[in-house]
Amino acid sequence: MNHELMIFGVVLAIFAYLVGIKKATWLLAGYNQKRVADQEKLATSVGLTYALSALWLLIWGLVGVANSELVASIAVGLILLQLVYVQMKMVG
């Protein structure tokens, strides 16, 4: 069991809940809320990405993978891809 991955996964799960369910888009860095036309779509999209990343980290944290840096890098890469997608498609 890898505790660092699990803690990171729990933190991301909390952010996924706050952004995806509670629509707390003010927590997101790198987005100009005034330039995003559809705040609902932004919250749903980012919340889903955070939830998938959290699930990824929690599963591999429970399994106890030896290369935790690679697992965390994949999760961070997914979040960065989401950031690029939002900047290209949702910001007007």
Automatic annotation (TrEMBL):
TM stretches of this protein: 6-30, 42-63, 69-86
Keywords of the record: Membrane, Transmembrane, Transmembrane helix
Lineage: superkingdom: Bacteria
Keyword Transmembrane helix on entry: yes
Listed name of the protein: DUF3784 domain-containing protein
Originating organism: Enterococcus aquimarinus
